C-alpha cells in the first residue's frame, strides 16, 4: 500500500474534486488511505464516507478523521437506501472488480451521480508495446507486470462509452488525461486515464460541452 500519492494520482484527484459540488454528500468506494476524501472535505466541504477492505488503510483514514466502513464493495451496497448520496466515487477500482455490472448499477442506485476513473488500455504506448514487442504493456497509468497487476479487466475509453450506451447510462462529463496534461483530441489513442461523470438515463453530452 502506497502512503504517498504520485503527482499523476494527485492530478487525477484534483480533477475528480472539480466535478463535485460544494457541501454535498459523497460515498467513496475503495477509498484506500482516504486522500481523496480529505481533499473533498478541505476543498468542497463535503459530508463524505468511504468503504475499504484493507485494515491498515482504514486505520490511516481514521487517523485523518474520516468516516470509513470496513467492507468489500464486491458485495454490493445493500445497506444504503436509494439516493443516499449526491455522488458515489469509483476511483481506479472499475478494472479491479469482478462484477462490474452489479457494482455500477448499485452505485447509480445509491448516488444521484457517479464519478469513476480508469486507465485506458487502448493508449498509444500500450498498443505499441503489445504490437511491437509482444509483451503485456506497462505504462505510467498501468505500472504493473502481468503477474502482479490488480487489474482483472482491461478496458478502453471506447469500451466504456459503448458500455454506457448499452446499459442506458448517461454520460454527463468526460475528462481525458495524458502524460502532459488533458486532451480532447483522439482520447482513445492518446489518453492514459479517463474520468467520467455518469447518471441513469440514455444520452451522451455533446462534444462542445465536454470537460
Offer a quick outline of the entry:
The chain is α/β, with parallel strands linked by helices. It contains seven helices and eight strands, in the order H-E-H-E-H-E-E-H-E-H-H-E-E-H-E.
Question: How would you summarize the topology of this molecule?
Answer:
Elements (H helix, E strand, L loop, with lengths): L6 H12 L6 E5 L5 H10 L2 E6 L2 H9 L3 E4 L14 E7 L8 H11 E9 L4 H10 L23 H10 L2 E10 L2 E2 L4 H4 L2 E8 L11
Parallel strand pairs: 1-2, 1-4, 2-3, 4-5
Antiparallel strand pairs: 5-8, 6-7, 6-8
From the spread of the alpha carbons, the general shape counts as globular
**Largest pleated sheet:** 8 strands, mixed
CATH fourth-tier homologous superfamily? Vaccinia Virus protein VP39
Q: Figure out the total of helices.
A: 7
State mean pLDDT (0 to 100 scale). 85
CATH topology: Rossmann fold
Describe this protein's structure.
With 211 residues, the chain is an alpha/beta fold. The chain has a single domain (7-121, 153-209), classed as Vaccinia Virus protein VP39 (Rossmann fold), CATH 3.40.50.150. 31% of the residues lie in helices and 24% in strands. It contains 7 helices and 8 strands, in the order αβαβαββαβααββαβ. The chain has helices at 7-18, 35-44, 55-63, 100-110, 124-133, 157-166, 187-190; strands at 25-29, 47-52, 67-70, 85-91, 111-119, 169-178, 181-182, 193-200. It has an 8-stranded mixed beta sheet, sandwiched between helices. The longest helix has 12 residues, at 7-18. The protein is globular and about 45 Å long. It starts with 6 loop residues before the first helix and ends in an 11-residue tail after the last strand. The model has no long low-confidence stretch (mean pLDDT 85).
Amino acid at each position: 500500500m502506497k502512503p504517498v500519492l504520485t503527482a499523476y494520482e494527485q492530478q487525477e484527484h484534483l480533477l475528480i474534486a472539480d466535478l463535485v459540488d460544494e457541501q454535498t454528500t459523497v460515498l467513496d468506494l475503495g477509498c484506500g488511505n482516504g486522500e481523496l476524501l480529505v481533499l473533498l472535505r478541505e476543498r468542497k466541504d463535503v459530508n463524505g464516507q468511504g468503504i475499504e477492505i484493507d485494515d491498515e488503510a482504514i486505520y490511516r483514514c481514521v487517523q485523518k478523521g474520516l468516516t470509513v466502513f470496513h467492507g468489500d464493495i464486491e458485495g454490493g451496497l445493500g445497506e444504503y437506501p436509494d439516493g443516499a448520496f449526491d455522488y458515489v466515487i469509483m476511483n481506479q477500482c472499475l478494472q479491479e472488480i469482478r462484477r462490474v455490472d452489479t457494482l455500477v448499477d448499485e452505485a447509480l442506485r445509491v448516488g444521484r451521480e457517479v464519478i469513476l476513473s480508469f486507465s485506458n488500455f487502448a493508449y498509444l504506448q500500450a498498443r505499441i508495446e503489445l504490437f511491437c514487442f509482444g509483451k503485456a504493456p506497462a505504462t505510467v497509468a498501468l505500472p504493473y507486470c502481468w503477474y502482479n497487476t490488480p487489474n482483472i479487466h482491461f478496458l478502453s475509453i471506447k469500451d466504456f462509452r459503448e458500455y454506457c450506451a448499452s446499459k442506458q447510462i448517461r454520460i454527463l462529463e468526460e475528462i481525458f488525461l495524458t502524460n502532459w496534461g488533458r486532451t480532447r483530441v483522439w482520447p482513445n489513442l492518446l489518453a492514459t486515464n479517463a474520468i467520467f461523470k455518469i447518471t441513469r438515463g440514455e444520452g451522451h453530452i455533446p462534444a462542445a460541452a465536454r470537460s
